[in-house]
């Protein structure tokens, strides 16, 4: 895996640079593998990954050969590329990256790291002759390196809220315009519940492109099913299914996945209801409201890397009826720190702040000041130089539920040291 890391690090200094010219050139050099791959294209602020995971799992159970491309990864690069619910092997990914590197021409602008791994994914799916690839947008939509297919089978927008304003624009309407950039003329659009100012932007784009549109309302939990020891059961348009991922947001995400599959059925795909039920029940999507342990102590981990995701985590934690929480948190410098704290912290909670290693981490001392302004009745707020120190102290300090959150990269670091 280190060789993949070191290979891709060479492209890291080109940064995140939105635009399609370099990826089109790179794919053209590779023989345009993306044109051989039918796709379901998924954008949105939150929920993209779990929708991709649900759709991929359902179609795999239905008997199709399914590729899946998502980002970021938690522990290693192979997590981004799946075939029929099995992640790509390190050896295969290395060979693909070498094939991509071989066609990069010195006289052409160098591709970014994301463009290189995205090209490798397209190449893999074409070589494997997948029936469909379920592809998650990396950032935004319109200028994202995944936005190279002119006729996806379905495009999906899961949700739109405030994120990446530094690149996508200063208002929610700007962000919505970028995400709606994945919509294509006449291609069916599946859209989750959107704020009014955002819905106007997306509706206009849908009308301009004459897309058949399906506005998806969330499923509903069956009464009493959340209290059972087995998985809760939801109902969407008469289909009852077990929901394996935690949080009320999965009512939205699973409904969007079912609606997506139902559109594929109108295009001739055979997806029995039994495959929908089994596919959802078997879905795995780590790092989002995931229960794990550290030194035999139960621990909840979640990305919660923007305000909307933090609100989902906050609502879930409050269903657990804990008197107070020990939060271990680290965030990137680019995130809306006070809004995330506002969604999570309550009087009586304890807060352990840590840097996010190897990324543009927010200053932990500044986070401490912000947190204590947002929640003046924290009983404890301390900064730590390293995650393991915070974990050790949180375990010895109290019997509280411990929640690790604030950044998917921090979760990846946690899982790396836990598994080492």
Protein model, in words:
The chain has 420 residues and is α/β, with parallel strands linked by helices. It starts with a helix and ends with a helix. It folds into two domains: 2-281, Mur-like, catalytic domain (UDP-N-acetylmuramoyl-L-alanine:D-glutamate ligase), CATH 3.40.1190.10; 290-419, Alpha-Beta Complex (Protein-Tyrosine Phosphatase, Chain A). β15 (350-353), α13 and β16 (380-383) form a beta-alpha-beta unit. 40% of the residues lie in helices and 16% in strands. The model has no long low-confidence stretch (mean pLDDT 93). α4 (90-102) packs across α5 (113-127). It has helices spanning 2-9, 21-29, 48-61, 90-102, 113-127, 165-168, 172-179, 196-209, 249-266, 273-281, 307-318, 337-344, 364-374, 387-397, 408-419; strands at residues 39-43, 66-69, 81-83, 86-87, 132-136, 154-157, 189-191, 213-215, 220-221, 233-236, 239-242, 290-294, 297-302, 325-329, 350-353, 380-383, 401-405. Strands 4-3-2-5-1-6-7-8 form an eight-stranded mixed β-sheet, sandwiched between helices. A six-stranded mixed β-sheet has the order 12-13-17-14-15-16, sandwiched between helices. The protein contains 15 helices and 17 strands.
Could you provide a short overview of the structure?
The chain is an alpha/beta fold and 420 residues long.
Tell me about the largest β-sheet: 8 strands, mixed
Query: Can you give the helix content as a percent range?
Result: 25-40%
Number of helical runs?
15
Gyration radius over CA: 21 Å
The average pLDDT is 93
State which percent range the strand residues make up: 15-25%
In CATH terms, what is the fold-level topology of the largest domain? UDP-N-acetylmuramoyl-L-alanine:D-glutamate ligase
| Helix-and-strand structural type | alpha/beta
Termini distance? 14 Å
Tally the structural domains. Answer: 2
Q: What is the CATH H-level superfamily of the largest domain?
A: Mur-like, catalytic domain
Uncertain spans: none
Gross morphology: globular
Number of strands: 17
CATH level 1 name of the largest domain: Alpha Beta
């Amino acid at each position: 895996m280190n060789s993949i890391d070191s290979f891709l690090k060479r492209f890291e200094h080109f940064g995140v640079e939105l635009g399609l010219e370099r990826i089109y050139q790179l794919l053209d050099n590779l023989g345009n593998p993306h044109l051989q791959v039918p796709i379901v294209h998924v954008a949105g602020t939150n929920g993209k990954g779990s929708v991709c995971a649900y759709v991929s799992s359902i179609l795999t159970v239905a008997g199709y050969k399914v590729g899946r491309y998502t980002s970021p990864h938690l522990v290693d690069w192979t997590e981004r590329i799946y075939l029929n619910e099995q992640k790509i092997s390190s050896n295969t990914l290395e060979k693909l990256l070498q094939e991509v590197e071989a066609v990069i021409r010195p006289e052409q602008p160098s591709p970014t790291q994301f463009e290189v791994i995205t090209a490798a994914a397209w190449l893999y799916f074409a070589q494997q002759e997948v029936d469909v690839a379920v592809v998650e947008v990396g950032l935004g939509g319109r200028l994202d390196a995944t936005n190279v297919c002119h006729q996806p089978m379905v495009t999906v927008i899961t949700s739109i809220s405030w994120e990446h304003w530094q690149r996508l624009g200063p208002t929610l309407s700007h962000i919505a315009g970028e995400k709606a950039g994945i919509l294509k003329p006449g291609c069916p659009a599946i859209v989750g519940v959107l704020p009014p100012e955002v819905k106007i932007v997306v509706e206009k784009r849908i009308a301009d492109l004459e897309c058949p549109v399906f506005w998806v309302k969330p499923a509903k939990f069956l009464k009493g099913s959340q209290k059972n020891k087995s998985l809760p059961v939801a109902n969407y348009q008469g289909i009852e299914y077990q929901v394996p991922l935690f949080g009320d947001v999965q009512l939205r995400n699973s409904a969007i996945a079912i609606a997506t599959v139902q559109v594929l059925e109108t295009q001739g795909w055979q997806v029995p209801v039994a495959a929908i039920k089994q596919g959802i029940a078997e879905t795995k999507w780590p790092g989002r409201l995931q229960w794990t342990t550290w030194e035999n102590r139960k621990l909840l981990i979640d990305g919660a890397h923007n305000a909307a995701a933090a609100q989902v985590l906050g609502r879930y934690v409050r269903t657990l009826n804990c008197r107070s929480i020990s939060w271990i948190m680290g965030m990137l410098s680019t995130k809306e720190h006070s809004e995330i704290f506002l969604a999570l912290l309550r009087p009586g909670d304890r807060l352990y702040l840590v840097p996010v290693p190897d990324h543009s981490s927010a200053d932990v001392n500044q986070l401490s000041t912000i947190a204590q302004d947002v929640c003046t009745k924290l009983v404890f707020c301390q900064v730590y130089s390293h995650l393991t120190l915070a974990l050790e102290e949180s375990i010895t300090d109290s019997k509280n539920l411990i929640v690790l959150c604030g950044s998917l990269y921090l979760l990846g670091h946690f899982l790396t040291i836990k598994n080492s």
